[in-house]
Amino acid sequence: MDDVFQRLVSLLDSHQASYRVILHPAEGQSARVAEIRGTEPGQGAKAMLCSLKGADEVYGLVILSGDQRLDMKKVGAALGGKKAQLVPADLARELTGCVIGAIPPLSFDQRITLIVDPQLPSRYAEIAFNAGRLDASMVLDTQDYLRIARPLVLSVTQEPQAQGVPSDSGPATS
């Protein structure tokens, strides 16, 4: 995991990005880590590694605001199929080098398509995320993020729904 953190620092420095590192107690839940960082929950770049149902090795690292929920059908369509699913924790670690909750909104694996929901960059001048470790966060200028990451920007979040209606978004991590 330190390797991912160091790769992030090197990448951001090489692109002269505006960012800061925050070291804190280990935390993987979006709302709690936002409080620790002093940021808004929605500012957290929640990274969810998905695969296309019924297809081998079709992966998407989907980035959305920490206060939003994924629509797995939209993710599936973005990956060229019908529906996506979250990858198992062991596969997420194998592909990203990180535990669930520590995955940053950047990928160092060419097999993974990076997808960002437009609500995140449109709402915040800076995004916050766990930086490959549960005890280290980065707050990064949003425009620098988009310039460096060059993600697909596609709507992949659920429409607001009535309370009590089940969703298909998986655990919240950022």
Provide an overview of this structure.
The structure is a single chain. With 174 residues, the protein is α/β, with parallel strands linked by helices. It has a single domain (2-153), classed as YbaK protein (Alpha-Beta Complex), CATH 3.90.960.10. The chain is built from six helices and eight strands. The chain has helices spanning 2-14, 30-37, 72-78, 89-96, 119-123, 142-149; strands at 19-23, 45-52, 59-65, 84-86, 112-116, 126-133, 136-141, 152-153. Strands 4-2-3-5-8 form a five-stranded mixed β-sheet. Strands 1-7-6 form a three-stranded antiparallel β-sheet.
Topology:
Elements: H1 2-14, E1 19-23, H2 30-37, E2 45-52, E3 59-65, H3 72-78, E4 84-86, H4 89-96, E5 112-116, H5 119-123, E6 126-133, E7 136-141, H6 142-149, E8 152-153
Parallel strand pairs: 3-5, 5-8
Antiparallel strand pairs: 1-7, 2-3, 2-4, 6-7
